[in-house]
Amino acid sequence: MVTDLPTDPYVPNTGSLAGSASREDALACIERQVSHLDTGVGHSFCVADNDTDEALGTAGLWLAPIAAGRATAGYSVAPAAGAAGSQVKHSSR
Description:
GO terms for molecular function: transferase activity. By secondary structure, the protein is an alpha+beta fold.
């Protein structure tokens, strides 16, 4: 999923993954996401299919501006998630 995610033209413009992310790029991205909790930058989540546990996208809560009383949240759905991605965006679970 992480190598598929940046094939969405929007993702490379908003994150740290290049449009042609290799396996090594994907692993480095995952390490960066994990480190955000340790450094207090925020919380990263993988959104997965409830039945198959297949990764479909990501979600995050970013706390860098918390001192100013703000935080930001975002999500991305991998293009290969297809119709399942639409359900992720609108799921109430």
